[in-house]
Amino acid sequence: MARKKEIPEEKINLKLLNWLNDTSLFNQDKGMQKLPLYIKQNLKHSLRDYQFSAIHNLDAVEKLNGKDDSYNQLMFYMATGSGKTDIMAAIILYMYQAHDYQCFLFTTSTTAVVNKTIDNLTDIASPKYLYKNPLVIDGQRISIKAVSEFPIMLEKGTIYLKFTGIQQLLNDIKSPRENGITEESLKKHSLVILADEAHHFNVGTRSKKDDTTNKSWEALLDKIRSLNPKNQQFEFTATIDLHNPDIYHKYQNKIIAQYDLSKFINDGYSKQVYRLQANNSDEDKILNAVLLSQYRKRMAQNMGISDFKPVILFKSNTIKKSNDTNEQFFSMISNLTAESLQDFIQSQNRSTQSEALSLAYKYWLKQDFGETVAELKRDFQELTTINANDSGKKDILDNESVAQKLNTLESPDNPIRSVFAVAKLSEGWDVLNLYDIVRIGENNIKPNDTNAEAQLIGRGARYNPFIYKGKKSYARRFDDRKPEIQLLERLYYHTINNPQYLENLRKSLDAINLPVNEDTKYKIYTAKVKNSFKRTDTYKHGNVYYNKVEVVPEDHYDSVQKYGFDPDTTEPIDMISVTTEHKIDTGADKDNSSLFPIVNAAVFSNTSDKALIRTAISFNPFYRFESLKKQCPTLTSVNEFLTSDNWLGHAVVRARVANRHHLTPQERLMAVEKYLLRVQNALVNNFQRSKGTNQFEKVAISEVISDYDKRVGDSFNDPKAAKIGPYPMKGKDWYAYDYAIVDQLEMDFIDRISAEIPSFKKKYDQIYLLRIDERNTDFKLHDFGESVYRYEGYMPDFIMYLRNEDYIYQIYMEPKGTAFVEKDRWKEELLERIDPKNVILLEDNDDVKLFGVKFYVEDNGKQDLHRMFPELREKGLLADN
Fold first, then answer.
1. What is the CA 575 to chain-centroid distance, rounded?
2. pTM for this model (two decimals)
3. Mind giving me the DSSP string for 659-670?
4. Which of 83, 263, 450, 469 lies at a CB distance of 3.0 to 4.6 Å from 504, suitable for a disulfide?
């Protein structure tokens, strides 16, 4: 039989979801504008915006005039780890309170998921219980009861939940037993079916050849749904093949929420995923994973993060291979010595192309190898390892003892650091502290194998909400920090280096929309502090300076500008990718964005735009007054926020669009939503921050100027990366490092300094150019002054250190590409503000003078040489030629 033709991507049109996202729908007064209090006050977790959107869409469908049977089966198509069970918990409250449903039937294909969900929804003692206790609606306590069958008489104030595996449910219906669930008992009450991992329940639709068992499951749910005209079925899955024509035809009008894995990761709700490709033997891969995992644990300890326990999964193709590898692992750790570990790290360090492993090697080479070996033997032993291959069951999570250990890996009382497995740890495994997956063996390269691995990586990407500085976060917070800190929020998949396997894996990852970063194809350049500089008094006893900060009081925040957001100067919203389609070979990209026109998407002061703005506001729970008030304590109402000139009253949402394109209402709404997210980020990131003062304190030069690495290459997707290189600085005693790892503009700046050295030597006996690498130090300047609303730290790239018999001068300098001059204008203003007449040195040292100068910029491809050095001469810092 000919293979069924797949539906191409551009033809997939989810009609119901598109209608729900249409702006006109949300101008109706009856739409859900915010999460009802009976849901909000009873859920343990606050719903994220996309989760609220799912409830919002369900409410819209439920309130449809003349709603018929075509809407009694709906699907929530949500990424693994995105909190589908939280949505389910909210739906139960919504259907109970808004539509009088008391009976809910939860079913799925695996026992592990059933057991997990029982804990989520009914076990008050479970740390994963999703409701607050007690559960109260309109002053009445509501009880949730897990039942084997629904009672004939329903008690007021009670929600009944029946949990069952789908096969058990089929058996119960086919062979009724006393006190069991039957078709007759299911007819008595209106019922909500909650079908999890629902891709297992459409086998009959998608294929004529699959097994009859799964077809029976689909038919069973159809049958139960038909028993009562009020019955409804809500399906949840992260996996649905909409390219299959039959599946697409069935679900195009049933999907009411979609949140795919790529968006989930890009929005910061999961770990970043990296693929670490190596030619190493299995044994070398295992030891590398152990070293990386333990380095990650050490980083967490150094940052004061307690109970941080990163777990490694060693994934094999066969039970024999997995068991052999487990034994090999114990033998390797047992035989490890200080000498063998040192030899291994030194050898690997010379050849690795991995940023993560390079960081780990660099760290371990500075540690005592005897202590390190003792620590590894303590943390990786039989007590801390689980072999999940003992069970003959199809799903290892059906083995109770194994499941208990695997499902409590985050617990400080659970010692497990490494897991050896073959069976697919997928549905029902909610581990959060999995940080390394190591593929063992190179035999299987079939697409089905990589499909399973892609699903496993997706589940492993779940975010680990550890406590840092007293706060627990459910989203990434280290994306702009040093790479070694980012390791706490990254999952590494250690792969084999087989071309066919890698191609199959790529296709499998693409199929589930899982973005994976490459940890290869880059160079690491190292800059070392010159020994000659280390011998100087400047290095041994000198200091550089940064300003102290002070906490900004709440009453200071009385306008949006004071959060660092200026409606008059904010960049246009980029809508080019939305409003045009580029051919691959046109070369049209964001670098050419200036060629596209800018249009007004919405004007906050225009009456005609108010409905559009209110609609965008309604989509984002952050803009509910109780939430907004937390970030804007001086605010009296949402209306003030939207209409006052101190806030967004005169804001204009500008958008950059394709040529001759007129924004549709839906595109205008999208632009306003993006604009509001930009505002939200400013409000959240800049509230209760510290601002700079004019008081400067010292830090030893030897603490700031140290060896550092700079990673350059394809994985950055940075067009400047190719221009960055190591420039030897031999013979230039005034430069502190042996190499300048800089781009062309920065090198031109250094050359310009070099040309001015003779002028400097006329006045100074000590002259040094200090390169400040922000990833290598937390040393930063903060803006200061009366009208300063920038709170983030900033350190210019260079400090010029000049000393004569009277004074030490320190000049803060920064080369800046013309494309960034306007955006970073505040930084230049900060530099110009640094002057002896404006700053106070806390050590009361009149011998030190601090200056900042304007950016060194490029002008039409030629560097502007007339801004910086005349300014130095005007300040008396340079001798006249």
1. 23
2. 0.61
3. TT----HHHHHH
4. 450
The secondary structure of the chain in percent helix, strand, coil, rounded to multiples of 5, reads 40, 20, 40
Comparing C-alpha atoms, which of 103, 168, 174, 90 is closest to residue 135? 90
Let me know: does 630 contact 683? Beta carbons within 8 Å. Answer: no
Please tell me what DSSP assigns to residue 409: T
CA 332 centroid distance within chain: 35
**pLDDT for res 718:** 45
- pLDDT tens digit sequence for 154-212: 999 999 999 998 888 888 888 877 777 888 888 889 999 999 987 777 765 655 555 55
Do the beta carbons of residue 363 and residue 404 sit within 8 Å?
Answer: no
Closest to 295 in 3D by CA, of 352, 247, 369, 359: 359
Look up residue 741 and give its two tokens.
Answer: 């790892």
The reported pLDDT for the residue numbered 295 is: 97
Write down the residue that tokens 């109770």 correspond to.
400
pLDDT, residue 206, reads: 56
Which contacts (CB < 8 Å, 24+ apart) does range 497-502 have? 497/277, 497/278, 497/279, 498/442, 498/445, 500/445, 501/442, 501/445, 501/450, 502/277
- What is the C-alpha to C-alpha distance for residues 572 and 671, in angstroms, rounded to an integer? 9
- 84 with 116: CB under 8 angstroms? no
Residue 180: which residues within 8 A CB-CB, separation 6 or more?
148, 149, 172
Sign of CA dihedral 252, 256, 262, 263: positive
**Distance from C-alpha of 705 to C-alpha of 529, rounded to nearest angstrom:** 7
| 547 within 8 A of 696, measured Cβ to Cβ | yes
Output the pLDDT for position 655.
87
Residue ranges, the chain, pLDDT below 70 = 1-5, 8-11, 23-31, 66, 203-215, 279, 390-401, 423-429, 442-449, 520-522, 576-595, 688-689, 711, 713-722, 774-778, 787-789, 844, 859-868, 879-881
The tokens describing 194, both together, are 């909650």
